[in-house]
Amino acid sequence: MFQTYDDVADPTLGPDRAKKLQAELRTRGLDGFIIPRSDEHQGEYVPPHAERLRWLTGFSGSAGLAIVLLDKAAIFIDGRYTLQVRYQVDINVFEPQSLMDMPPAQWVEENLPRGAKLAYDPWLHTVEGVERLRKAAQKAGATLIAVENNLVDAVWSEQPEKPKAPIQPHPLKFAGEAATDKLKRITNQLQSCDANAAIITMPDSIAWLFNIRGGDVSHSPLPLSFAIVYEEGHAELFVDEDKIPKETRSHLGNVVTLLTPGDLGPTLDKLGTGKREIRIDPTTCATWIHDRLAKAGAVIKRGDDLCELPKARKNDAEVAGTRAAHIRDGQALSRFLAWLAREAPGGKVTEMSAAIQLEAFREETGALKEISFDTISGSGPNGAIVHYRVTTDTDRALGDGELFLVDSGAQYLDGTTDVTRTIAIGTPSQEMKDCFTRVLKGHISLASARFPKGTSGAQLDALARMALWQAGLDFDHGTGHGVGSYLSVHEGPQRISKTGHVPLDTGMIVSNEPGYYKTDAFGIRIENLLVVLPPAPIKGGEREMMGFETITLAPIDLSLVEASLLTADEKVWLNAYHARVTELVGPALSAAEKEWLEKATHTI
Ligand code: ZN
Ligand code: ZN
Description:
- The protein is of the alpha+beta class.
- The protein is 34% helix and 19% strand.
- A six-stranded mixed β-sheet has the order 4-3-2-1-5-6.
- The longest helix has 28 residues, at 316-343.
- The radius of gyration is 25 Å and the shape is globular.
- It starts with 13 loop residues before the first helix and ends with a helix.
- Bound molecules: zinc ion (2 copies).
- One zinc ion binds next to loops.
- Residues 407, 418, 420, 527 line the site of one zinc ion.
């Protein structure tokens, strides 16, 4: 199984660990240390040895930061984790702070004593992140100091080893473009932005560029490594030799020079002595790299990671792959929904047993490489917790008259999936139906949108919310995020949200996941993935318009649809969607499952 259900919360260990860290601070003559929840690559998932924030405080969320001073400590979390932090962390030792209302920089400004030395590990902070903190420390009359040896590592006696998962070539039939061609595209871009080289620090960019996949973190096949791309057309990959099996060595042989992680520093020095112009992405590049380059004399040019956009625009092979992955995944999910319809009445199914069964159906496809994130399996009030993780402690039965929200996804060689369904167990209330139908109206509105080239996700976000807004309701998360191709389930730069200002482009994959959450009562979310389609004429229209193809295939619970709230066009969309689900998913199902699917997708 790829998911664990143990309760990772143990707030009793934090106080002692904070004391050890404070003792280490005193030994080194420092006054504080910053502990972000990140590794050297700033990804969403980090390997076990980099779970320093969790080890120190007990907090297991996917974003956060702690600052430990000699006499006090704070933990900074966003709105998703306000409740979680209270049962995972000893809040008498680590005072919880809202990242929005009291950002770390402001806290530093207000809490750091004059003359204090606040230390940080330059590998774990981005260039921009450190600049904000440095300004704040200066305002407090204190200094920010980079330390070579991480203070948490110094006191963490059983810190796991760095991961060394083997890196595999990603077959051309799935990647759709040879690594040499990708490299040519990136070096051309380098020339047009007048840089001599670019440092690539995001493992998913490296995976895309060289057509490789790794396994250093859970849920995402990332090869943790660094790369440098040169305008002359060659590239260097800095990676632990143990992670490169023979077949990968020959795959990479023509494309890139393999160097060890230890070679990175001296290589950066060389770029500096040559006074080369080097592009880095200040929002993701570790400040260690920036500082080393700057010290050596390199001219630093700030700009987006050059791989990000081309990686987001999936080519035909990647789109074909993701379609196939979604048919396979839709079959597994439909089998699960049929199983749920049979087993859930009477309270026999729990959140945990449901998540385990769903993974088992995905495993039965024979193609499952990983789940793309921990399944969110929330019944009743737990469904209203947006980032709920079921554990043996919180597990509850799917009760009659309740809603069950299940958000899950898979990693297959040909594509990454992410899908949410909300299911009524027994008979739903009118309020549930009303809210569900409004969420569905938003989902359909976005799925069927047509828009001119250059339109961004920010411009479309309201489509998914309008039906809720008109009833005085809303949801507090983005409508959609980018999705990788057998890569990260959350990838940029495009997204459907108030801040998604990157134009949507052909081949991009985004999620369409409006929701509604009634605290302590129920949660609703309907999530399908969309592929952005190229501009095409509209009958009788003057201009070509882009649009979406919905690629996720699984029934939407009709017992939650209040048909009188849907327009004729919305009914047409829903019926056509369900017809496509039956056509593409149906053939792989058993007779009993097929019979259930026919009923579950009947015309309304
Ligand atoms: Zn999801
Ligand atoms: Zn999603």
